[in-house]
Design a protein that fits this description.
Layout: E1 3-5, E2 12-14, E3 16-19, H1 37-49, E4 54-56, H2 65-76, E5 85-90, H3 105-119, E6 124-129, H4 138-151, E7 154-160, H5 164-177, E8 182-188, H6 200-207, E9 210-214, H7 248-265, H8 269-278, E10 285-288, H9 293-300, H10 309-319, H11 327-333, H12 335-338
Parallel strand pairs: 3-4, 3-10, 4-5, 5-6, 6-7, 7-8, 8-9, 9-10
Antiparallel strand pairs: 1-2
Length: 339
Amino acid sequence: MKYNLLGNTGLRVSELCLGTMTFGGKGRFQVIGNLGQTQVDQLTKRAIDGGINFIDTANVYSEGLSEELTGQSIRNLGLHRDDLIIATKVRGKMGDGPNDSGLTRKHIIQQAEASLRRLQIDYIDLYQIHSYDPLTPFAETLSALDHLVQSGKVRYIGASNVTAWQLMKALDYSHYHDIAKFVSLQAYYTIAGRDLERELIPLLREENLGLLVWSPLAGGLLSGKYSRDKEKEADGRRANFDFPPINKERAFDIIDLLQPMAKAKNTSVAGLALAWLLQQSVVTSVIIGANKMDQLDDNLKSIDLRFSNEELEQLNKASALPPEYPGWMLEFTGADRKA
């Protein structure tokens, strides 16, 4: 297991991160997973034994139950809190009241305290906004996050599911007001969905932010259960929850390439999809979630998989994004600078 620096910090996180969306199975997250405490303990132990030191959760996962199960698992297993990097998130709806969602100072601080109680810890390593809140000014949000950092309840702050302009605006505000800055972005990125490469990845490279990848298997489409001929026969998550949206024709072109590669390497399509991400230099950590131990074991093997230059060229060509303005114009006008 490799340990990468989280953005422009000295914090080292494992290249694979244990995701907890399958923990609990309460509310709308039942379609993702419904693991109880015993199963959570088993998966967490296997992840830690495999070298993972990074756990990602969120207050909205199973309406807080995921955090509770995660915190109890750490206690049940006798893990040393300071050996772990624990990340959680804030933004989503946590009640029926008018102030029970968003990125207001009230909601952020209230939810940070609630997450600490559920996780049974006294500080959060990485506290992330789960998305953008169009009703709350960035100044209020960033001030509240900085307050949590200054109080010692949060070590670092990160963003998730935001646009490039929103992220850059937040970074500039923090810089000019000398307050805590986002050190990472958690975002959807996969060989079958490379939209992040248009605007956000250049920004991450320029500002030296970490990238944490969610849904690296495209909502299960790259799990190995699906193929062009058997799309409707598979019984995976996509059968009940067809998300994230994806260009399936392009995805099946990629799967057609991955299947013989997996057979030749005696591994799985899922393992190769994870390995492709791990070989992207911008990626800090890939978040893996599992419902079964064999899924987690298979995911853990991805850290040892490698592609030949020819294989990478084939995969990159099949998964390449179609040209889009202004990208194709910048490519054209910038040709004289490439030499």
